[in-house]
Structure formats: structure tokens, C-alpha cells
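Table S2 (continued). Query chain:
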Amino acid sequence: MSRKYNLVNDKDIKTHLFFNPAKKGDMEDIKYLLDYDEENDAQYKDISNYIMRVVDKSEFLCKGVNKEYVLESFNKVDAVIVIGSSMNVLPNGNIYGFALIQFDEIKNLLYIDLICSHNGIRGAGVKLLNEIEKVCNKLMMDVIKLTSIKTAIPFYEKYGFVKKNSACKTMCIMTKMVVKTKSKSSKSSKSSKSAKSSKSAKSSKSAKSSKSSKSPRSSKSPRSSKKLDGSKTRKNRK
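Corresponding output:
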């Protein structure tokens, strides 16, 4: 593939999510919120083996990363997010990048244990970060956390990550606050509330206007009746 190929605007890219079946008991709520297909659990070993073969035989994915560390990460993380072919990435689809992630529900954050993108394609890393942020939004998690090597720090800083220790130079812990996106349901509920409030405001205004139009007539009648009564009594006295 050409090094000038840009992935950002490619509509044929698909995101694939696979959960580690070893963490099945702890992930039920998260899977439910992500509308996850449980059948993908059976493919976790297959996708990890396939990625390891690509990493082992090529130099365009996870270049410079210790292969044993990649394998160990697959065994301990909760899930893997893969960006690749628009069709099924297994058994031999194109892989443009992947991220091994862990969920911390107590601290309400997502930790990226490892992220690898195709070094011959532009935009793969950005696409992965965007997909991870979408996952956080669905789970209502506030923070994305990772540990970055020295050469990758400027990249993460460009996309909103901040070093926990500003003096850190290499292997730095970095975090990013998740930008919350409003769901369609919340927008519709707000619009319906505003519609109801506007209707109630109109009805209250019409009620006030009708009362105000009636009140002058009612206020005049008692006074006029008193004057008439007074005039009659004066005539009778005379």
C-alpha cells in the first residue's frame, strides 16, 4: 500500500470489537450497553492469533514493539478494537490498526494497554482514537488513559491528551477527558419539553388576556349599581 494513502475519509473501513472470553463475568453490563454480539467472544482467540501472525511476519504493524509484550497484553486485556476491512476481518481481512483496552468502572475510565496502527497508512491512529472515544461515550466513561513512549507523546498531545506529570520525558502516563456527545433521544426529549413549555406559556397568556378583558366590565358594574341605589334613596328622602 502507498504511504500516501489516507484512511480518515475512507468510508469502506469497519470497526470490529472482540471481548476476551476470560473476562466474561465482569463484562456483561458493558457488553449490554455496547449492544455487543456475544458470538464474537468465540473469535477472540482467532483475531489475536491472526494479528500476531501479521505482527510477526510484517514490519508495518507494531513496528519496534516487543512481540512477547503484545501477546501478554492480548491475554490480560478486556477487549480488542480492530479497524480493517469493511467485510469481516477474519479469516484474512485487511487490518489497519488495533487497540487493546481495559475498562475501569470504579474510576470510570478506559485504559489503552497497547495501540498499533499501520505505519504505511495515514489516519489509522486517529481513527482508532475516535472509535475508542465513541465506546467511552456509550459507556458514559469520562477519561481515556494510556502510557506513551517518547516519540508518540506529540501525537497524543495533538489529539487532546495531557501528561500526568508535565516533567515526564518518556513512558509518560497521559489522559484525555472524553467529549460528551448528545444522543438523539436526549435531543428529542428536550424538544418535546420546550414544545410543552411553549404551549403552556401560550395557554397561560391567553388565560390572562381573557381575564384582563373581562375584569374592567366586572369592576364597573358594582360602582354603577351603587350610584343608582344612592340616587333612588335621595329621591325617596325628598
